Amino acid sequence: MSITRLGTANMYDRTISNISKQQAELASQMEHTTAGKRVLRASDDPVAAALAERARTRLDRIETDKRMLDAQTATVEYAEGTLGEINSAVQELRTLLVQAGNGTYNQTQRDTLVEQLTSLRAQILKYSNRTDSNGLPLFRGLDTQANTPFPNGGNGIQSGQPNSSEYTITNSLDGALAFFSGKTGNGVLAVDANPANQGKAHTDAGVIKDPATATALTVPVTISFHDDNGVLSYSLDGGTTMLPYKAGDAIDVAGMALTISGEPAVGDSFTVKPSETISVFDAIDRAISTVRNGGNPDGSTNSGALAHGIAQSLAELDTALNRISTVRGVAGDLLNQAKRMNNTLDARDEQVQAQRVAAEDYDSEGMVKAIAQLKTQETAVSAALQSYASIQKLSLFDYIR
């Protein structure tokens, strides 16, 4: 039988080790309780730590998507507001164009209007070339190389930048659709007046009655005026059939009802042909040219050419306004998409936050247990310190005293 001797020094060592262990446990418990987290480091719970880390990674991605979406939304809002300014400028230009057709105006007064029209044209060009905070044109489509994309004859302009991911919208609008998809005339057929016309007749843009016939037109049709035994008449494409002309009556030509007003001269003609694509800038330039050249060499007004040109330009500007409104509508739809995406990101953020909390944070019941454990640990440390104080007195010298 062996007798094990426990010396005082050995008891001191064991007590100090126990106190250190208890204090370390107390410090860890205080750290977790103060942070409100069950898992502070991977060693606490490797699986939960991994789940929490993945949740934080997803939260960072969601936050990045939100910032990107906010930036794109701000750009689209700026572009939509710019389209509103362009729309207002074109509307004002249209009003001035109607004013230029006033029969009481002389060429000097119309020249004043030309200056205003030219100024508005410059404003519209400036608006169409606005850039975002990164210096990229708002209406570039996919054309990011051109510093001044409009007008460039449509070269390099592509239609619409697609969404690059689930939670992004395009950060530019389709400039090709907004500014380069207009049509001459009424959008299907256009009417040109012969520059050599001597009379005072003019036409409207025409109303399509038979779309199939109108769209099938490939060869221009000419309306010519003749003297048919003292009666002013017209024929189509130089045919022998003469029909008496009556100002304001609609003429059926190529599936379109065309109204000719005023007093044509014998030999005057108008040509009906398929509409062509025209940019808003070219349409404005044609309108300005019509007003600028509305006078005869003798100073009188070339009323026929002026009225005809204004009627055609008004129709073309109306088409341009429709295109601008269409792109503005696209901008509104993009903003609605962004709002829905943002709501989805908020919902995902809450979901992932809940997953992170479940992985590493205390719930209400767990927090109560943690506080209880902390109090228990504080008691254990206090008891250990008191025990050490008592054991410290157990020496031979103290016994002899």
TrEMBL record:
Entries under Gene3D superfamilies matching the protein: f41 fragment of flagellin, N-terminal domain
Keyword Ligase: no
Domain Flagellin N-terminal: 9-142
A Pfam family reported for this protein in Swiss-Prot or TrEMBL: Flagellin_N
Assigned GO CC terms: bacterial-type flagellum hook; extracellular region
Example GO biological process: bacterial-type flagellum-dependent cell motility
Key words, A-Z: Bacterial flagellum, Cell projection, Cilium, Flagellum
Entry's localization field: Bacterial flagellum; Secreted
The keyword Transmembrane belongs to this UniProt entry's keyword annotation: no
One MF term in the entry's GO annotations: structural molecule activity
Family of the protein in this entry: Belongs to the bacterial flagellin family.
NCBIfam families associated with the record: flagell_flgL (TIGR02550)
Stated name of the protein: Flagellar hook protein FlgL
